[in-house]
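Record type: monomer structure entry
Structure origin: computed from sequence
Chain ID: A
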Amino acid sequence: MLGFPISIAAATSLLVIAIKAAVALMFRSGSIAVDWGIVTPFTAAAIVGVLGGRRIADRVPARQLTAALGVGVIVVGLWTGLDAARNLIAP
């Protein structure tokens, strides 16, 4: 949308997500018990996904990656909106 290459847009998005997750974990770690048995596998899967995604991104044309990212954002937005609407209707 702003004319950035897909690699910059995707990396920026992932960085923002990582920062938000780290801050949330810091704030919650003092008030609730963190189940590291759940957190650790998800973190490991995310790292594997990033490394695997980079290999895929090197082989797939930028236009296709841009389209896939756009579809992903729309799907997540719709899912979030539907979930929020459902919770407003029947809390």
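Annotation 1: The two ends are 36 Å apart (CA to CA).
Annotation 2: Residues 44 and 84 are 29 Å apart (CA to CA).
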